Amino acid sequence: MSLLQVTGLCKTFGEVRAASDVCFEVRAGEIYGLLGPNGAGKTTTISMISGLLRPDAGKVAVDGADFWSDPARAQKIMGVVPQEVALYEELSGRENLEFWGRLAGLTAVETRERAGEVLEALSLADRARDAVKNYSGGMKRRINIGCALMHRPKLLLLDEPTVGIDPQARANILEFVRQLGAEGAAILYTTHYLEEAETLCSRIGIIDHGKLLAEGTLPELQKRLGGDQLFVLEGNLQQANPDNWPGFRERFRIIQKLDHQLIVSSQNSRHPSECLRDLLELPVRVENVTLKRPNLNDVFLQLTGRELRE
Amino acid sequence: MLWTLLIKDLKRARHNPWPYLLNLALPLCITALIGLVFGPSSKGGGLGQIKLAVVDEDDSVLSSLLRGAMNQGDFKKHLEAHFLERNEAFKQINDNKISAVLIIPKGFTRTYLAGDGPVAFELIKNPAQSFYPAILEELLQVAVTGLNAVARNLRSDLPAWKEVFEKEGRPDMKRIAELMVRVGDKFEKAEHYLFPPLIGYETTTQKKAKEEGPALNIFAFLLPGMAAMFLLFLADHAIRDLYREVTARTLDRFRTLHDRLLPFVISKVVLAMAVVVLGSIVMFGGGVLMFGIHWQRPLAMAVVILAFGLFGSGFMAFIAALARSERRANAVNGVIVMCLSFVAGSFFPARQLPPLFRDHLSPLMPNYWFIESLRALQSGAVDMPWRWAALKLLVLGLGLVIAASWVFQRALAKGIRA
User: Fold this and answer.
1) Which of A189, A249, B331, B353 would give a disulfide with B357, using CB separation of 3.0 to 4.6 Å?
2) B68-83 b/e with 16+ CB inside 10 Å = b?
3) A89: exposed, middle or buried (Cβ count in 10 Å: 0-12, 13-18, 19+)
4) Are strands A65-66 and A57-62 parallel, antiparallel or unpaired?
5) Residues pairing with A253 in the sheet
6) Max CA distance (Å), chain B
7) Cβ–Cβ gap A100/B16 under 8 Å
8) Which CATH class, in words, describes the domain spanning A2-220?
9) pLDDT at position A204
10) What CATH number belongs to B50-195?
11) B413–A86 C-beta distance less than 8 A
């Protein structure tokens, strides 16, 4: 069952097209990763879904109903975790949770009980009364997520929730999000970390310059490269022109070509040793050839011509 | 929801009270500053002693009598006269130690008694002071009017007086006594013309005023003007919490839960109003303690202050919504408040402004309504009915809150960041 359906979302800021015909859906129990570099349009997309920005065109349907036809209903269903830590630093963790819980419509009693549950789940019960300004970065991030969970949303939007924290804290948050997904929540998770998308998300959409370039499961995206192995040739390739190599284009697909490196995948399902022999016979001096499994960065590379980390 | 938002801000203030305390200390400092600038406090509501230097270049018996009069009775209570040489007197006025210098010119007595021609005192006022020199000028005018009256009515006796004053050695007291008797006879003959006086005054009102407190206190006139300006500054500081909510992204988080911004803006306005009311208590209460002001109608005053609090907070919220960023607000708000305060008469009474301001612009200013209604309440004047002023401030304040919310919501929907 689709809890979030995004169709043809567009948003322009002056000359900049922040989102262009973005379409995807998120089902219950699914963690959908929106992967892209900084400035790709992830936050703009989440802002339009959560009602912070009005789309220029397109439609956001939450639990089957258009967001803007009944925003209050949609807002009750969704919980939003902004990219920045949106908390009151003077207040304690519990006070923050209770405040956002009350605003989300819980009664005083419900709020107190739920805040206790969330603090336990986030392993922050022992620091509940401390002011947030005294928390570590990871603890702030956890409370930041907790505030969005107070009203038990069926749809959770997480905008880069692990930016700027240490690996241990990141691992804790990812585990927590995984549990939420397992409990049946539909989760939209934006990130520019490849590893997060690869290990956490059941489906991934790759976004760049406001356009959703590809989406699918990790194997589906890997398949776009033509196989489950990539060949990395290293050497002086500055003068090399693959178009002049007889039959090369028919047998291989170029993923990336640099002065010192060429990454290719096989066009058909030939045995790697056969491909390796073909590559070694190329009219160019190759110093090293390695094989590797394609990752999301390679997919991104193939889609955009540049690396996600650039 | 409004209650939840207010409780949150009160908790924040409890955890970090310093910004609010500093804001409230501002009016306290201003009140103390006014006290320091305009003189020491006086429970009686008076202005204290006015320091005057007298340079007696005539050095005659008449000028000695005038000098003596300044050290007696009511004069002594209000005037502190120092008899100095010209240079020393000018030095003191340059050092701002006295309010004015009165010079009795050489030959004053001779010319006055001979009736030879016009004779003039010289009054040099201290330009660094405003009220005291003006009061001294008025007093001198009264003295001159009196001396003129004496000269015109006792013209035939003046040569005899002149003779007595110009005689070498000790004054002839026997002769002076004779002259005094003649003057007394003249007054006796004129009694039917002088008494009962055609114009008089009743003392009952004055007595009542003394029992209850001062009827007119210059600080009671000044304070509403100063308060109007500083209360707007206080509202500005308090409402800037809106920007902090934007930069901390807590306002965005609120908007993911509620699509209407009005409750959020109202909560900030209520908080700013509370700060304005506390600031008013500090300023007007400080006026009671420091200047002995007796506020005539505190309840009506409270209503006007509350209405002005709503207007000030709503106005500042509206400016915040238009400015869109704290950096811009920093540049703009101070100028706006100062201009409004000038036009409304915070610095100079509006009736002393040029006609364009006095007749057309000032009466349109909401802070003018506040200032004038407080002054009217204090003086008992009816030219600015406080109920009408309070109503106008309330309606305008509410309108501004709604407008601020609408403008702010539109700006945020377009994606602005403070």
Assistant:
1) B353
2) eebeeeeeeeebbbee
3) middle
4) antiparallel
5) A265
6) 102
7) no
8) alpha beta
9) 92
10) 3.40.1710
11) no
User: Which of A75, A82, A88 minimises the CB distance to B259?
Assistant: A75
pLDDT tens readout for residues B179-232:
888 888 877 777 777 666 666 656 553 444 444 444 456 777 878 888 888 899
Structure tokens at A149: 């969970």
- Where is A103: in which H helix or E strand? helix A93-103
**Cα–Cα distance list, B380 to A159, B224, B397 (Å):** 63, 15, 26
SS3 B34: helix
pLDDT in tens, A70-123: 889 999 999 999 988 999 999 999 999 999 999 998 999 999 999 998 898 888
Quick one: average pLDDT of B163-180? 79
Burial of residue A10 (CB within 10 Å: 0-12, 13-18, 19+) is middle
Q: State the average pLDDT over residues B388-410.
A: 92
Both tokens assigned to B23: 């804001």
**Interchain pair B8, A100: CB under 8 A:** no
| Cα B292–Cα B296–Cα B298 angle in degrees, nearest 5 | 100
The answer to whether B308 and B276 are in contact (CB under 8 A) is yes
Q: Please, what is the end-to-end C-alpha distance for chain A in angstroms? A: 37
Could you tell me which CATH number the domain at A226-293 has? Answer: 3.30.70
Residues in chain B: 418
Place of tokens 């963690």: A31
Residue A90 touches chain B, beta carbons under 8 Å: yes
Q: Which helix (H) or strand (E) holds A80?
A: strand A78-81
Q: Does the structure's ipTM exceed the value 0.95?
A: no
Torsion angle defined by CA atoms of residues B189, B195, B199 and B202, in that order, rounded to the nearest 10 degrees: 150
Distance in angstroms (rounded) separating the CA atoms of residues A225 and A255: 8
**Angstroms from A53 CA to nearest CA on chain B:** 5
Among candidates A13, A54, A103 on the partner chain, residue whose Cβ is nearest the Cβ of B257: A103
A46-56 per-position pLDDT tens digit = 999 998 888 99
Contact A91 B413 (CB under 8 A): no
Distance, CA of B191 to CA of B181 (rounded, Å): 15
What is the phi-psi region of residue A210: left when phi exceeds 0, alpha when psi lies from -120 to 50, beta otherwise?
A: left
Going by the DSSP 8-state scheme, the letter that residue B49 receives in this structure is P
Q: Domain segments of chain B: what residues?
A: 27-41+217-413, 50-195
Q: How far does Cα B228 stand from its chain's mean position? A: 13
CB contact under 8 A, B256 and A51: yes
Tell me the CA distances in angstroms from A23 to A55, A57, A303, B164, one per residue in order.
13, 12, 17, 115
Q: Which tokens is A169 given?
A: 């804290």
A contact test, residue of B3, B246, B250 with most A CBs within 10 A: B250
Comparing alpha-carbon positions, the chain B residue that sits nearest to A18 is B415
Of A54, A86, A131, the CB nearest to B15: A131
Q: Which residues of chain B make contact with A103, given a CB cutoff of 8 A?
A: 1, 4-5, 254, 257-258
Q: What single DSSP character describes residue A307?
A: -
The residue type of A98 is E
Domain coordinates of chain A in residue numbers?
2-220, 226-293
Contact B238, B312 (CB under 8 A): no
Which residues are bridge partners to B79 per DSSP?
B50
Cβ contact, residue pair B4, A13, below 8 Å: no
